[in-house]
Design goal:
Elements: H1 5-15, H2 20-26, H3 30-54, E1 59-64, E2 69-74, E3 77-85, E4 91-93, E5 99-101, E6 107-110, E7 113-116, E8 119-121, H4 124-129, E9 143-145, E10 151-156, E11 159-162, E12 179-181, H5 183-192, E13 198-201
Parallel strand pairs: 1-13, 11-12
Antiparallel strand pairs: 1-2, 2-3, 3-12, 4-5, 6-13, 7-10, 8-9, 10-11
């Protein structure tokens, strides 16, 4: 674009000879523009280098809660893309004034654990949501088998990446905060992510 600058200046001087903009352009030094361009190029190169340094080299997962999509990445390479379901943002209130907002937390997380054929230990809100009395912490009715799919990956604070029985709901924000995946997507995520792998949720 620098080659066009002299022509642009002449046109502005002819049309707006007394304008403030024309006066500024008249004093503009092309060498200064070139110097600024080189400075910006160096800055961009430094930012690219910083971005590359921050990008994990091992496989990692990106969860887009707005579009309910996931991407399995390795560096800048896309390994797999699929649908998911994330938090519904529904507010649940209990009679004892406890309340829960079912959202999927944003940020950078690490895989804290992996399990096959996980068993769901139902928290208090699961019973309150169904209008049932809350049982003791280790009561038999708290444990449900087969509802989390074939695999589960732990993110901490009770949040999981797991399968679902409700595959028709994938792509919609309907969960209690966990990230639900379809069977094949879950297998790929489970295979590629190891203990300590990064998960970026936004």
């Amino acid at each position: 674009m620098l080659w066009f600058a002299p022509v642009l200046r002449e046109w502005i001087f002819a049309v707006l000879p007394e304008s403030k903009f024309a006066m500024q352009l008249r004093t503009t030094d092309i060498k200064q523009l070139q110097k600024e361009a080189r400075r910006l190029e160096k800055r961009a190169a430094a930012l690219r280098k910083k971005h590359e340094a921050l990008t994990p080299r091992a496989p990692y997962l990106i969860v887009n809660t707005s579009d309910n999509r996931i991407q399995v990445m390795k560096g800048n390479e896309l390994l797999h893309e699929g649908m998911c379901s994330t938090g519904s943002y529904v507010l649940l209130k209990a009679a004892d004034e406890r309340q829960w907002i079912f959202h999927t937390p944003r940020g950078m997380f690490r895989i804290r654990g992996k399990s096959e054929y996980p068993v769901w230990k139902k928290p208090d809100w699961a019973f309150i949501e169904e209008g049932l009395p809350v049982p003791p912490p280790n009561a038999r009715e708290r444990f449900e088998y087969g509802v989390l799919g074939e695999y589960a990956l732990e993110l901490g604070d009770g949040y999981l990446i797991h399968g679902t029985l409700y595959k028709r709901m994938l792509g919609m924000p309907v969960t209690h905060g966990c990230v639900r995946l379809g069977d094949e997507d879950l297998r790929i995520v489970y295979k590629n992510l190891q203990f300590g792998s990064k998960v970026f949720i936004y």
